[in-house]
Amino acid sequence: MFPEIGQFSLILSLFFALSLALVPLIGYWKGNRPLLETARPLTFIMSALVLVSFVILSLSFLTDDFSVLYVAQNSNSQLPVWYKFSALWGGHEGSLLLWVLILSGWCSAVALKIRTLPEDIGPVVLAVLGMVCVGFLSFLLFTSSPFARLLPDVPADGGDLNPLLQDFGLIVHPPVLYMGYVGFSVAFAFAVAALITGNLNASWARWARPWTAASWAFLTLGITLGSWWAYYELGWGGWWFWDPVENASFMPWLAGTALLHSLAVTEKRGVFKSWTVLLAIFTYSLSLLGAFLVRSGVLTSVHSFAADPTRGIFILALLLVLVGGSLLLYAIRATEVRSTVSFGATGREAWLLLNNILLTVLTLTVLLGTLYPLIFDALGLGKISVGAPYFNSVFTPIALLLMVFMAVGPLSKWHHTKFSVFFKVCSISAFIATLSAGLVVYCYGFGLIAWLSLTVAFWVVCLSFSDWFSKVSAGTKGIIPRARQLPRNYYGMLLAHLGMVVTLVGIVLVSVNSHESMLRLSPGDRATIAGYEFQFDQMEQVKGPNYVASKGQFTAYKAGKAVAVLHPEKRFFSTRQQVMTEAALDAGFTRDLYVSLGERLDDSAWGVRIYVKSFVRWIWLGGLMMMAGGLLAALDKRYRKRAGV
Amino acid sequence: MHPVRKKRLLVITAIVLVLGAAVGLVMYALQQNINLFFSPSQIAMGEAPRNANIRAGGMVVKGSVKRNSDTLAVAFDVTDFQHKVTIEYRGILPDLFREGQGIVAQGKLNNDGVFEATEVLAKHDEKYMPPEITEALKNAQRSTGESAESAQSTY
Question: Which of A434, A545, B91, B123 is an S-S bond match for B128, by CB 3.0 to 4.6 Å?
């Protein structure tokens, strides 16, 4: 009974989404105030209905209702209760429902804040969001309903959740990632609404900025969580694989980063308007493209859902309609919104333009690498894969260049900056950075690339600090009161930039200073890696809630003293007949000890991976700092003012 | 020159320079780092280049996995049910590596026709099959079907 109510409420919400997409627009064209004002209640009703069906599906999971096909495929009565809940987004249908739920959540958030917008623009933004909702709700209803029943032959038990996904990481990673992905539809809706109404001025950028910053922060956190999850759960200790699906989340992030910066220019200076609109459309298209790559199964990836061509075609159609439609609108209207203000070649605008060019190029290189196998195959040239070396060798130099300029931009002033202003501080910083990085590299015997990257890292830190210091030391008031007066926006930027540096340091040190080895060990054996002595103490059998495991015990010694006891496991999940590696970690601020079991080789010997990873936590620490920076920028006071005040 | 045009020229030069450098980098990196996939049949026919980075894959032949008793070295055969190729690897095989399952390996084909793998990939979900393998199996099946038919027609 309940699943039918869930299905019914989804159908109803599709009707409300349809009216949301149409009624306010009619109101806008007719100049009819009551029709415009329907946008808010329509959004709330639509979101409430989606929430109802989400709650019903979660109840079906929690009560083990295996008459629902999707529950039977992705859950099992033996599953711990929190995994029963998160199994909801372990497969295609449920994760799409989560996507729609989050989308309607963003719509409601916009509806709640609608009073900060002029009376005729807010409803148009909601109407555009309504169109996006129509697209995804019909995708859900027509190709992948999660409420399909398995009647009358109800299975006694479910097929279980993929053991890889039975993990804390899977509970949090998809919702946060989707918050980011889907959040860009708000920036997209603002851009399209601006094109429809022709109201594309600096205040447009001010409205779109906090939403973009918030979704960017969520996407940053989602990618960080995904990387951390891959590191400890996949059992081979990598933190980024350039897997097509990782790229699918990384491309909107790169484009979104560019969007954040160009929105800043549009808001402050009123230039780059049409480019910013295009970038908002581009960013959202990339997040749709990501959805297409993940759900259509066209690319080989660890994330692939069981492939179904009709779904791929549906998303492709959705992509064409939304992106094609908005680009068409852009082509018609963009000439009207061209900037009339000029900008200086030496001002901050120019640096941010450079930022945008570099970020766009980075996005395109990742896009090319991701789609190249598809293009190659479509041309009949054979099956290829583009490996991580491609991405590393293309991405690294451009990204380093970007970071060099990242520190210079904030120093410069709008419109025009005198060369002498930053010559002194830049040359001092360059000197300090080169020397200190050189010292580190010399002491530890790293190579040239590490020296370059660390120089860039120190350079950004020096310049950021001197910029902050020059801002707080100017004037007569003391440092602390002035530091308090600086806007949150500024601190958000500072934090995000420093987060980028922390991530860079992590990446560099992990790649040049880690020690990895694969060994054949039996209980009692010892191995020395990077100054740590690992002893394989014993092996035992343990039983978990829905698996049995071989659990090893390793003790790590440094200079004869025990520093950590590690328990890597090899779990066997009987429902799916699947083996899972559970790596054991001893996390630290400057190093991680990582032990994971390979296969059992004979009666006593096991293949064992032992890694000593240098500064790997910094990669995610930097991600967290960037997220905090994004949130801080989104919460800046001046975005809370009402329209027209 | 008019200042607006001068600025535009500057912007366009910057874009062209960055794009040009990026395209050069991309071309170079793509040349070095694309890995073509070859099925065991293609390798048996000599279509695969020797000592170049390629990928190969198929179903692991039952009973073909041989391990060295002192090291992590392992050798096994993969097949598309037409031809076999031997893969040698030193390291830890993925969790879902099993006899009778589909795998893809990355590495080089040496002069003895043995594939020396640097990486062995298995799928992460037992329902999921790498598309390369599905296609290789399909192709192999088609050619066996044809040869069976042509064999019949000669009678």
Answer: B123
